[in-house]
Amino acid sequence: MKNRSNLDKFSLWLLAWPIFIEVFLQTLLGTVDTLMVSRISDDAVAVVGFSNQLFNALTTLFITIAGGAGILIAQKLGSKRTEDARTIAVIAVKASGMIGLLISIVLYLQPHFIARLLNLPEHLLPLSDTYISIAGGGMVLSALMAALSTVIRNTGNTRGPMYTAVGINIIHVLLNYGFIFGAFGFPQWGLTGVSISTLVSRLLAVLLLFYMFIHSFERKVGLADIRLKDSKLFKEVLRIGWPLGVNMSCWVFSQLVIYTFLATLGTKELAARTYMNTLESFCFMLGYAFALAAQIQIAHLYGAKRTKEAYKSAYKALYVGLIVVSFNALLLYLLGKRLLGLFTDDKEIIAMGISLLALNFLLQPGKMINMALGNALNAVGDTRYMMVISIASMGIVATGCSYLFGIHLGWGLIGIYCCMIADEYVRGFLVFIRWRDRKVLRKIEASQGDSLSGQQVHAVRGVRLEA
Question: What number of other Cβ atoms are within 10 A of residue 122's Cβ?
């Protein structure tokens, strides 16, 4: 009964629905941020969008550890090595926290230099100094949130991070409303208040996640575990994690570079892309939930050497995801003008956004292929392949072609967006071919065959000795 209960915990749907709600609420958090900040000014929106791209880029530095650890935790639990899973979890949280602290110090001390380095328009620098120093100074909290959520989720407990997301969303919305509009007796601090609201929400989330983390394994995590070390297991984390980190950083840094291209086009293009980022998130979040759930399930099945089930799980997530994201993209296009009108009254920005929403219908299926099958390859540890194709496609197609067509040839925002679509489909085709070939899964199947042959030889020898 216990084994059956453990298997049920790692079923695709039971893993996916809490992830969906968590992602939905996080997306809602971003939407509320953008919507409320838009009441300050379109310039403030541009700064928040630009700064968040920077934060996402820096996030990859600690996601390298957390992502690799999450995959290994699910694999170790699948192979019944629970103490190894626990050790990996503790090491990952410590390492991510230390990296996050270093990033926080740099962002707090040098916001102006960083904004100038990334070509932010001159008139936006005062706002960026405020937002980057305060919100960026809390990156250590983002690092701990990422590590703790990943660990907890990969033990099969996807509900815990979901409940946390519910709580911080409510708190964040209330604090935002208070600081921006001067409600509930709060001072009307504008973008500074939004930054403080973000910090407070993240701090409360970290406290809740720490409590769940302590009780996530058979043996409770305590203060004595701060000294816990295991170089062999940490090398395993890095073996999977560093290519995963490079893969993720390729996407984030390509987006950051593209934002610098947009900054040269103008503030309106930058604001339009920021609004589109918010709306796009609602398209793929359910598909992403299935893709992430599939990664956890596949890693668990891979650890248990149940390769056939692992192979089919990726396609199941892909098929469901394609239907969902395509429907969402169509719905978003039909309602696009009204939705964009919630954020801004600028007709030029709205016109740009509507054009991008039409192209978004082409973007989302390609993105879903990457999410489902890319996560499946990550789950079985094939992260180096993902790294190689990401460096090539994102460097040449997404970034290089965006400059060529969007800036050099003067196609502007539409040209850049088309290059992003092309990148998704190039990578999508490559991950599909890789997963279909089952290269990593065949190695496990071969090792199982060798093990079975060895057992048969020993059995025959035993029979001969008895005879």
Answer: 8
